[in-house]
Design a protein that fits this description.
It contains 15 helices and 19 strands. The chain is of the alpha/beta class. The chain has two domains: about 170 residues, Rossmann fold, CATH 3.40.50.10940; about 325 residues, no CATH class. The strands form four sheets. A six-stranded antiparallel barrel has the order 11-12-17-16-15-18. The chain is elongated and about 80 Å long. It starts with 7 loop residues before the first strand and ends with a helix. The structure holds manganese (II) ion. The site of manganese (II) ion has 5 residues, from loops.
Length: about 500
């Protein structure tokens, strides 16, 4: 679904004409070497485009104007090889709409102790030039990511790559749609929000379609078409005996696959990357789309249960960021706790809709009745989530701003069978502790819904929040809920001052 190469990242190296032709030629030659190596590196997934060396206000302004107009330009990387007086950059930065990464590096790793002279110093003075450059970003209150370190180091490139993936997701969101099949679940507060502000901030168009439109699309899909697609599942999923061909509940699976096909067609026609549904509005559909939603998430679509369009949009963005990385990313819901001393953990699941990309083993297709919704027993994929480090992220609407809440967690192996809970499950220990994380999350107003990922780290979501210029609250190993209470109050003053 995603091709990260289609996103361009413009590499703008700054200097000035004070040093003469020879120095500028060397700057350009070094920038070319770096750009060529960056372009080859799998850690940097976009397409790197080296631009002419920036040496005066006119060319700098023109570069940023061109970047704004370039549809595939997802972000701009700046680096000052030499000193580049920052007043030259003001007009360009003032009109810029693209995310910025300020790379703070230098071409040489080591100081050449025996040969170093003032010419070398003038040529290789990012330590000096990038401070002037950083000043103007700070002075103009421009959000940006700063990555400092030697440009050949893996960690520098990894952090640049994180930002690139996030910037690609931002650009994708600018031209994408969340299809809301029906409205939000009645009476629920946390799934609500300001869709106009969301479109202004994130670019996503969030609109409703009547469930009847989907039901009509569903009726156009035949059982045969669904059976044909089911043939592709044998390598990917196990089948409970009663959903195998001729089994008692085969028709439940066929219905889910018809819904999958219908929803995918619908989403493609609307250029949508994400959707929501709600069990309270399924008129004309035989079941809650469980297996169908699991399959669509696996293909990269964002999904939000009970009309939760914010998490659906975030999930699609996270799927794009995570494209090609090992692990999985899913819609998730906090369900219940294990409070046994020393073994505290949270059990996450959803009624049905958890993405099989996070499974530890082959998921199994099963059909069971659903306690709510009053529809037929839905087919779903049942599995346990793979263990390892993971992250939860959510977006809420605070009335005057969006807030992202991020929690680092450790997913652990589920030792028990839970035969009466035939859904996808994940069990995790959150940081700093179950109680500390729950108190912090609840204090921040976080929803019971989140995006769960073992492919991404908190750095991706922090970069995303910075890029979108929204608040983020980070809950990790060092979080103390009492300190967080103050942080939230300071944040209130900061965000109110920005309105
Ligand atoms: Mn839910």
């Amino acid at each position: 679904m995603f091709d990260l190469k289609k996103y361009e990242f413009w590499f703008i190296v700054g200097s000035q004409d004070l040093y003469g032709e020879e120095t500028l030629k060397q700057v350009e030659a070094n920038a070319k070497v770096m750009a060529a190596e960056f372009a080859k590196d799998a850690l940097l997934p976009g397409t790197l485009v080296l631009k002419p060396i920036a040496i005066n206000p006119q060319t700098i302004r023109k570069l940023f104007a061109e970047a704004n107009a370039a549809e595939n330009c997802a972000g701009i990387i700046t680096w000052m090889h030499t000193f580049s007086p920052s007043k030259m950059w003001i007009q360009g930065l003032a009109i810029n709409h693209k995310p910025i990464l300020h790379l703070h590096t230098q071409f040489n790793r080591d100081i050449p102790w025996d040969s170093i002279d003032m010419d070398f110093m003038n040529l290789n003075q990012a330590a000096h030039g990038d401070r002037e450059h950083g000043h103007i970003y700070a002075r103009m209150r421009i959000n940006r990511k700063i990555v400092a370190g030697f440009w050949q180091d893996e960690d520098v490139r990894r952090r640049m790559g994180v930002w690139m993936r996030v910037a690609a997701a931002r650009l994708e969101g600018m031209n994408s749609v969340v299809v809301r099949f029906g409205d939000n679940m009645r009476d629920v507060a946390v799934t609500e929000g300001d869709k106009v502000e969301a479109q202004r901030k994130f670019g996503w168009q969030i609109n409703t379609w009547g469930i009847g439109d989907l039901a009509a699309c569903y009726n156009d899909v035949s059982d045969n078409e669904a059976e044909k697609l089911i043939q592709e599942f044998s390598d990917k999923y196990e089948f409970a005996p009663n959903v195998q061909k001729g089994g008692e509940f085969r028709h439940s699976l066929v219905e889910q696959v018809r819904m999958e096909i219908a929803m995918r067609r619908f989403l493609e026609a609307e250029h949508a990357g994400a959707y929501t549904d709600t069990f309270q509005d399924l008129h004309g559909l035989p079941q809650l789309p469980g297996f169908a939603s699991q399959r669509l998430m696996e293909q990269g679509y964002g999904f939000g249960g009970e009309g939760d369009w914010k998490q659906s949009m975030l999930l699609h963005s996270a799927k794009l960021m995570a494209s090609g990385l090992s692990g999985g990313t899913s819609f998730m819901e906090d369900y219940t706790y294990h409070f046994a001393p020393g073994k505290e953990a949270a059990l996450g699941a959803h009624m049905l809709e958890v993405c099989p990309s996070i499974a530890e083993a082959k998921p199994r297709i099963e059909v069971h009745p659903l306690g709510i919704g009053g529809k037929a027993a839905p087919a779903r994929l049942v599995f346990n989530a793979a263990s390892g480090p993971a992250v939860l992220a959510t977006i809420i609407d605070m009335g005057n701003r969006f807030r992202m809440i991020i929690n680092e967690i450790e997913t652990i192996k589920i030792e028990q069978d839970m035969p009466k809970l035939p859904v996808a499950r994940a069990l995790w220990k959150p940081y700093p502790s179950l109680a500390g994380a729950a108190e912090s999350w609840i204090l921040s107003g976080g929803t019971h819904h989140a995006v769960y990922s073992t492919q991404l780290t908190s750095e991706y979501f922090k970069d995303w929040a910075e890029m979108m210029d929204i608040e983020y609250v980070f809950i990790g190993k060092d979080t103390n809920p009492e300190c967080l209470r103050n942080e939230l109050r300071w944040g209130e003053a900061y965000w109110n001052s920005k309105i």
